[in-house]
Automatic annotation (TrEMBL):
Protein name (Swiss-Prot/TrEMBL): Shikimate dehydrogenase (NADP(+))
One GO MF term: shikimate 3-dehydrogenase (NADP+) activity
Domain SDH C-terminal, residue spans: 242-272
Organism the protein comes from: Pseudoxanthomonas mexicana
Catalytic machinery residues: 67 (proton acceptor)
Top-rank lineage group of the source organism: Bacteria
Length: 282
């Protein structure tokens, strides 16, 4: 057995692209890597992580719905993980888990680097307040957006996220039912899992968008179709799915674990080619 094992934990996790992304990075870097997908239901997550650590687990990515649970089990966390209250990258150090959150940095790198978009001074609407929303909110503020309005089906979670961000002048929550009264936005981020669930997607008023709006879905593949279809119908200037963010957050984790910065472009291009969906950013 290798003494350095890596994995992604999620529920479900079978369709995760992370093993493929990390394998491609490892091949680039000439590193032999074991990186698997481990399905762990929330109630079994801590036990599964313990087993993984006992078996030589050195690092793990965490995806839905386990990012807030991962934060809770860490002995130490980075500042950006604490601001998010969610962890997507775990590293084993001295018999304890250290937690980081690379989602926000991954998103901003994808939007500003790959897609050449400027986030500064944008008035932003964040739909959702779960682990994914928590991961990206601090990085969006750091990227210079002028305002962040958080709207969530369950209002208390939006309130809690706004409080945790600690920037009452820029970041605040509003009720979902008031979406029609919030004016328009130059950045709209879908961080909900609505399209991954049985009850399907929600509808949004078209007047949230303008011809210069950037619409971003943190989902990718089929789960990004409903929101990005809405964005196009609403006349948004750019509509970007979460595939690039996925690759960039993986690169952040890979660099942290292995000390090598991967070249993300060929990996992104291969996955995009396979996926054949959904980016219309200039
Ligand atoms: P993730 O890690 O993907 O963020 P999560 O923490 O379970 O997963 O959060 C899912 C998010 O999608 C939440 O903001 C959730 O809203 P609630 O807090 O009200 O549950 C949101 N969501 C899920 N289904 C939704 C739906 N049908 N309509 C609107 N929001 C939905």
């Amino acid at each position: 057995m290798s003494s350095h094992r890596y994995a992604v934990f999620g529920h479900p996790v079978a369709h995760s692209l992370s093993p493929r992304i990390h394998a491609a990075f490892a091949q680039q870097a000439g590193i032999a890597l074991e990186y698997t997908a481990i399905d762990a239901a929330p109630h079994d997550f801590v036990a599964a992580l313990d087993r993984f650590a006992d078996d030589g687990g050195a690092g793990a990515n965490v995806t839905l719905p386990l990012k807030e649970a991962a934060f809770a089990i860490c002995a130490q966390t980075t500042d950006r993980a604490r601001r998010a209250g969610a962890v997507n990258t775990l590293t084993r150090n001295d018999g304890q888990w250290h937690g980081d959150n690379t989602d926000g940095a991954g998103l901003v790198r994808d939007l500003t680097g790959r897609h050449g978009l400027d986030l500064r001074a944008r008035r932003a609407l964040l739909l959702g307040a779960g682990g994914a929303a928590r991961g990206v909110a601090p990085a969006l503020l750091d990227a210079g957006i002028s305002e962040l309005i958080i709207v969530n089906r369950t209002a208390e979670r939006a309130d809690a996220l706004a409080d945790a961000l600690g920037e009452p002048d820029r970041a605040h929550s509003r009720y979902w039912r008031d979406l029609g009264d919030l004016g328009d936005f130059s950045l709209i981020v879908n961080a909900t899992s609505a399209s991954r669930q049985d009850q399907g997607a929600f509808t949004l008023p078209f007047h949230l968008a303008t011809p210069r709006t950037l619409a971003v879905d943190l989902n990718y593949g089929e789960a990004a179709i409903p929101f990005l279809a809405w964005a196009r119908a609403a006349g948004c200037h750019d509509a970007v799915d979460g595939l690039g963010m996925l690759v960039e957050q993986a690169a952040e984790a890979f660099e942290h674990w292995h000390g090598v910065r991967p070249d993300t472009d060929p990996v992104y291009a291969a996955l995009r080619d396979r996926d054949k969906v959904l980016v219309t950013a200039d």
